[in-house]
Amino acid sequence: MTWRAVKIGRRFLSDKRQVKSDKGKILGKMFEFIFGSKSQKVMPAVADEAFSAAWLRPIIADLTDAVVAYDEDFKILILNKAAEQLFGIGAGEVVERVVSLESGREPRLKFLVQVMFPSLAPSVVSRSEEGVYPQVADLSFDDANLRVTTNRITDEAGKVQGFTKIIRNRTREVQVLKSKGEFLTVAAHQLRTPLTAVNWVFGGL
User: Fold this and answer.
1) Where are the beta strands (DSSP E) in the chain?
2) Among the four residues 100, 147, 201, 205, which has the most C-beta atoms within 10 Å?
3) If you compute the radius of gyration of the chain from its CA atoms, what whole number of angstroms results?
4) SS3 at position 4
5) β-strands 135-140, 145-154: how paired?
6) Helix 3-13, helix 53-61: angle, nearest 10
7) pLDDT at site 60
8) Helix extents (H) in 14-116
9) pLDDT value for 50
10) Which residues pair with 166 in a beta bridge?
11) CA–CA distances in Å: residue 134 to residues 65, 73, 166, 196
12) What is the pLDDT of residue 68?
C-alpha cells in the first residue's frame, strides 16, 4: 500500500459520517476486511459503521493487490486499478454489470470469470477449510499464479450482501521459487558427479 493510501486512510478514520446506500455499507465492510476488524489501535471503536464511500474509494484504488467486490447477484460493484491491470479490462466495462458463467464466453472477460468462479480455472489449490470464510485459494494459469482471498460482506443481521475478492499476483514469486529449485537441483547434480568419480578412484585403489 502506498503512503498516499495510508494518509487518506487516517483522514478517513476521523470521518464518521454514515452512508445509507448498500454500496457505501459494502465499502465499509471491505475496509474492515482488508485492514482487519481487530486493529483497534489504528481504528477507533467505529469499525461496524458505514463510512463515506468518498474516503474509501481512494484507499481501495491505491492497493497494490487487485480488489473485486460484487453483490449477491454477482453484479460488480468495485474493480480497482490493480484489478484493471491484472484482468486487462476497464472498470467502466464491468462495474454495475452482472457477471455469470456465460460471461466467460467473452474473451475479454474470461480471465475475470475464472477468478470469480475458481472451479473454471485450470488449476485450483484450496488453502482453507471448505465453507469457512475467508476462503483462500491458489489459482494457476498458463501465464499467471494468483492467490485469491474471498470473504462475505454481511449486514448487521448477518445477511450476506455480497462478496469481496483480494487477488495477489504471485506469478513472479512462483517463478523465482521455481528457478531457485531448478538451480539447486542442477547444482546438486554438478557437485555429485565429481564426487562419484572420486569415489570410483578411491574404490579402485
Assistant:
1) 66-71, 76-79, 123-126, 135-140, 145-154, 160-169
2) 147
3) 23
4) helix
5) antiparallel
6) 160
7) 84
8) 22-35, 53-61, 81-87, 91-94, 110-116
9) 45
10) 67, 149
11) 16, 19, 10, 51
12) 95
- Do residues 194 and 201 lie in contact, with contact meaning Cβ atoms separated by under 8 Å? no
User: Residue 79: how many CB atoms within 10 A of its CB?
Assistant: 24
Tell me the per-residue pLDDT of 97-132, one tens digit each, with 9 for 90 and over.
Answer: 999 999 999 999 999 999 999 999 999 999 999 889
Q: Residue ranges of the chain with pLDDT lower than 70?
A: 1-55, 174-205
What is the reported pLDDT for 162? 92
Residues 201, 117 contacting (CB under 8 angstroms): no
Strand partners, 154: 160
Q: Which three cell numbers stand for residue 189?
A: 547434480
Per-residue DSSP letter, 96: T
Where do we find the cell 488449476?
123
What values do phi and psi take at 24, rounded to 5? -65, -40
Measure the N-to-C terminal CA separation of the chain; round to a whole number of Å: 65
Dihedral angle, C-alpha 25, 65, 97, 114, nearest 10 ° = -130
What letter represents residue 137's amino acid?
A
Instruction: Give dist(CA 108, CA 161) in Å, integer.
Output: 27
